[in-house]
């Protein structure tokens, strides 16, 4: 705990030997000394007269938060000229209006022209006001700020440079935020092409070069340059083909076309890049990002420090493989080639992958053994997750069987005609199935998921990006290699990509221009996080698996305990395991009820009592904290209902629309339950555990969806397809179908082509 102005705050452990910049974004959270450069476009309003106060307040809040974590923050700011321009304009207008009123002898004012204001005069008038504003804002967070004005001479004169360095270090030692600006009141006009003079000398022409020089002088860990563009693009922003560059490496500037500079300020993007590269050579990491966007400016600085994919990160370490953006583009191109193959060719790929799973069994199990040993040594996985991580010969054999089912059932999945309509004579319309595009599947601890999902993507002609957990690294790598080996037999190796870079899941969820559907497979927390992080990309899945079994008064004694045991105890960590057992009130204190309780005790299932069930008992088990709980373990809730209608109402109120079951011999009651429960899967006298793509005969599943559009329940090949419309005409135009036109709409349904019987 550190204290300043009697206010304690938590510090984070930050230590790093300066001299080499960070290689990856994920390392930025270790930055201790940070310079934030605020461009003129960030600080000033759109009319260039006055400051963007809301934006500035948000930046001060973020800087204060990082300062209170124990970091050493410095700000290089623009804005004095704009603030001074606002003040001088006001003074000139006021002066002119007084003179005019005195001269004319009346209060009516004529049009007044404002002379062009000299920038140095504006800077002189605006510096004090700008600093007063910063001081007032930082005071709200019990932080002191100090102003430092510099010129180029302060860096070239050795004594002045030492004095500046000493002053800054002393301010940082006292937990004061230095606010640095060029002394625009006295600086000479900028000279063209004098931004940077080699590696050891940098000319302080603008605040970009000032920030870079300061960052290197002060051995800063991170320089954040905020401007009015998202970062560095491979061509001028706004052009059709412009793409944001996530990571920029020294030497890449030859492939970049620079546009014009921002609406205000001295430096354009070219100056920022030169300054950033100079700072990078001096051992300071650099990120250029947008500080003006209303949706991100409120957290852009903290996001950068947390390692999120914001703006352009400058790095000297080039990754060995492609970036995730390049992988997504490769997956899309490969997916389109895959979709163009004949169905038999796609099936051949899947059959080949099934063979490889059994042929390369020993190599796969050896890689999986490494993952298990590392997970056990680190002790980071709970027992249920370790079970999911584990592969075995029987699991691989089951996987191979499932893949062959997918291959056999995928013969006419893509390009299948599902509707034909004759719009008019010689004008026929077809609706056909097509792949969705590029799928991103994120999965935890389950390497067996990789070949399953890959096979479904191949069968449906989709490109695929896979992001597995670190705990299954070795298993995932060999399974992906075998998948690409199978794809290679028809030249579509790139259609399935495994993301091995240090991409955070949240960053992947922002690639809305590259990814068409996200499918999370893992804990409910993972699914919720992805649903929250996804920006403009639909997410298929379920956040919780709160599955119910309702035992009716007409339930069979023999069926009840078997179905409940299987639903709860066969695999309690599964999303389709029983979590809440609903029992009809008339069954309390009956032999059947006693058998249920005895069976659960024998299986060591911990029982939580619902409110109504607890009210019937003198000594009840622990009362449930919430009826909307997914235990994922040998635990369940028991609650009492008065009727099948009440059971349905309970499921709708507390369930997750996943899988719900009724046990009864009364067909009328069962049909009522089946028709009225609004869940993805509703069963009669069958275990909840049947809610599974393999058990449904789909071969495998990419997950279970509880959404109400597109796919629902276990999602196989059909759930990874969408449709497009094909219209074949012969010189048809809409005007021919007007009231006085020569043609009439027919809208006749046509027979569908015969499906492949195989």
UniProtKB/TrEMBL annotation:
CDD domains: AAK_P5CS_ProBA, ALDH_F18-19_ProA-GPR. Keywords: Amino-acid biosynthesis, ATP-binding, Kinase, Mitochondrion, Multifunctional enzyme, NADP, Nucleotide-binding, Oxidoreductase, Proline biosynthesis, Transferase. GO terms for cellular component: mitochondrial matrix. Can form homodimers/multimers. In the C-terminal section; belongs to the gamma-glutamyl phosphate reductase family. In the N-terminal section; belongs to the glutamate 5-kinase family. Bifunctional enzyme that converts glutamate to glutamate 5-semialdehyde, an intermediate in the biosynthesis of proline, ornithine and arginine. This is Delta-1-pyrroline-5-carboxylate synthase. The gene is Aldh18a1.
């Amino acid at each position: 705990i550190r204290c300043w102005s009697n206010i304690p705050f938590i510090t984070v452990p930050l230590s790093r030997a300066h001299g080499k910049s960070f290689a990856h974004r994920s390392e930025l959270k270790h930055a201790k000394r940070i310079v934030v450069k605020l461009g003129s476009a960030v600080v000033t309003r759109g009319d260039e007269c006055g400051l963007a106060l809301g934006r500035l307040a948000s930046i001060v809040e973020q800087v204060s938060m990082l300062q209170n974590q124990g970091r050493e923050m410095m700000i290089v700011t623009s804005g004095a000229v704009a603030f001074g321009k606002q003040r001088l304009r006001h003074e000139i207008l006021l002066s002119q209006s007084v003179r005019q009123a005195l001269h004319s002898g009346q209060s009516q004012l004529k049009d007044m022209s404002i002379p062009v204001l000299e920038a140095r005069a504006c800077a002189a008038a605006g510096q004090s006001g700008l600093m007063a504003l910063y001081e007032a804002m930082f005071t709200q967070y019990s932080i002191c700020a100090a102003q430092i004005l510099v010129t180029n001479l302060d860096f070239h004169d050795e004594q002045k440079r030492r004095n500046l360095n000493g002053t800054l270090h002393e301010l940082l030692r006292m937990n004061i935020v230095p606010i640095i600006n060029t002394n625009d009141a006295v600086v000479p006009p900028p000279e063209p092409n004098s931004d940077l003079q080699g590696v050891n000398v940098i000319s302080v022409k603008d605040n970009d070069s000032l920030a870079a020089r300061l960052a290197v002088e002060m051995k800063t860990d991170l320089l954040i340059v905020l401007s009015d563009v998202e970062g560095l693009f491979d061509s001028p922003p706004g052009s059709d083909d412009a793409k944001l560059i996530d990571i920029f490496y020294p030497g890449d500037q030859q492939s970049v076309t620079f546009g014009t500079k921002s609406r205000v300020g001295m430096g354009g993007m070219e100056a920022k890049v030169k300054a950033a590269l100079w700072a990078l050579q001096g051992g300071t990491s650099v990120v250029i990002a947008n500080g003006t966007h209303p949706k991100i400016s409120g957290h852009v600085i903290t996001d950068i420090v947390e390692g999120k994919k914001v703006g352009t990160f400058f790095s000297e370490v080039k990754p060995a493989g492609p970036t995730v953006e390049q992988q997504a583009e490769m997956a899309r191109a490969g997916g389109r080639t895959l979709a163009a193959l004949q169905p038999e060719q796609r099936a051949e790929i899947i059959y080949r992958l099934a063979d490889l799973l059994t042929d390369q069994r020993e190599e796969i199990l050896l890689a999986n053994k490494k993952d298990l040993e590392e997970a056990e040594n680190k002790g980071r996985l709970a027992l249920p997750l370790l079970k999911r991580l584990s592969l075995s010969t029987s699991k691989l054999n089951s996987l191979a069987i499932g893949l062959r089912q997918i291959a056999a059932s995928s013969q006419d999945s893509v390009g299948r005609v599902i509707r034909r309509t004759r719009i008019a004579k010689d004008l026929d319309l077809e609706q056909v199935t097509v792949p969705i595009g590029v799928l991103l599947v994120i999965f935890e601890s389950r390497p067996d998921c990789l070949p399953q999902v890959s096979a479904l993507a191949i069968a449906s002609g989709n490109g695929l990006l896979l992001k597995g957990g670190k705990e299954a690294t070795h298993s995932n790598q060999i399974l992906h290699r075998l998948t690409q080996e199978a794809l290679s037999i028809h030249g579509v190796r790139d259609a399935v990509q495994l993301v091995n870079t240090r991409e955070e899941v949240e960053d992947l969820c922002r690639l809305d221009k590259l990814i068409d559907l996200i499918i999370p497979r893992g804990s409910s927390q993972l699914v919720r996080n992805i649903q929250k992080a996804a920006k403009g990309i639909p997410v298929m899945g379920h956040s919780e698996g709160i599955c119910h079994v309702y035992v009716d008064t007409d339930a069979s004694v023999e069926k009840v305990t078997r179905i409940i045991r299987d639903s709860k105890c066969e695999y309690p960590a599964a999303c389709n395991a029983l979590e809440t057992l609903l029992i009809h009130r008339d069954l309390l204190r009956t032999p059947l009820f006693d058998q249920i309780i005895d069976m659960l005790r024998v299986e060591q299932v911990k029982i939580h009592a619902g409110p109504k069930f607890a009210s019937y008992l003198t000594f009840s088990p622990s009362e449930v904290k919430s009826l909307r709980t997914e235990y994922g373990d040998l635990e369940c809730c028991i609650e009492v209902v008065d009727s099948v209608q009440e059971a349905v109402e309970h499921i709708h109120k507390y369930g997750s629309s996943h899988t719900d079951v009724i046990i009864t011999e009364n067909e009328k009651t069962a049909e009522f339950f089946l028709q009225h429960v609004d869940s993805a899967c509703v069963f009669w006298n069958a275990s909840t555990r049947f809610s599974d793509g393999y058990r449904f005969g789909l071969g495998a599943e990419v997950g279970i969806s509880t959404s109400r559009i597109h796919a629902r329940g276990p999602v196989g090949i059909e759930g990874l397809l969408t449709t497009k419309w094909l219209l074949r005409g012969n010189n048809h135009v809409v005007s021919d179908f007007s009231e006085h036109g020569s043609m009439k709409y027919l809208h006749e349904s046509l027979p569908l082509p015969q499906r492949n019987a195989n």
